[in-house]
Design brief:
Blueprint: H1 12-31, H2 38-50, E1 53-54, H3 55-62, H4 66-78, E2 82-86, E3 94-98, H5 100-108, H6 111-120, H7 125-147, H8 149-155
Antiparallel strand pairs: 1-3, 2-3
């Protein structure tokens, strides 16, 4: 009996989906001992690199809506990783800053990027950079498709659904 590969294995979208799920699971394995989730980790990485942020700017960088971000930041504050404070000049604006504990996690989690690179089989920074660049180009292209589907549909002469 011949075995054929599942049809989804030939789809770019499924390959991306499977890679994303597996990557998130790998991060979970590395971050669980620190009682962190992947979204919390990327929030910390952003704060380590860029410093204090408003909730709005952090949400934009992480591509998370406030309904997802606010409860996550509340959990991070309860864990002692960040502080949330309202600006005195505009109380609608909430600023997120690292605590000493949140800043200390930077050193404790320094192994995570190295583990992910090794697990992905990257032998040098250039191979990782090439993948990151390709994924950024893909993200831009998919945002363009999302925002302007008619342009792409016309470019591939796709049929239009009946009106």
């Amino acid at each position: 009996m011949l075995f054929s590969m599942p049809a989804v294995d030939a789809l770019v979208c499924f390959a991306l989906y499977a890679a994303n799920r597996t990557t998130t699971q790998a991060y979970r394995a590395l971050l669980e001992p620190f009682d962190l989730t992947y979204p919390q980790y990327i929030a910390l990485v952003t704060l380590w690199a860029d410093g204090e942020q408003t909730v709005k700017s952090l949400g934009e960088v992480l591509q998370l809506d406030s309904g997802t971000l606010s409860p996550m930041l509340a959990r991070m504050e309860a864990a002692g990783h960040v502080t949330r404070s309202r600006r005195t000049d505009d109380e609608r604006v909430v600023t997120i800053a690292l605590t000493a504990r949140g800043a200390a996690l930077r050193e404790e989690l320094a192994h995570v990027p190295r583990c992910m690179a090794a697990g992905a089989g990257f032998t040098d920074a250039e191979s990782a950079r090439d993948l990151i660049d390709a994924l950024h180009r893909l993200t831009v292209a998919m945002k363009d498709l999302r925002d302007h589907p008619d342009t792409v549909l016309a470019s591939v002469d796709a049929p239009r659904p009946p009106a």
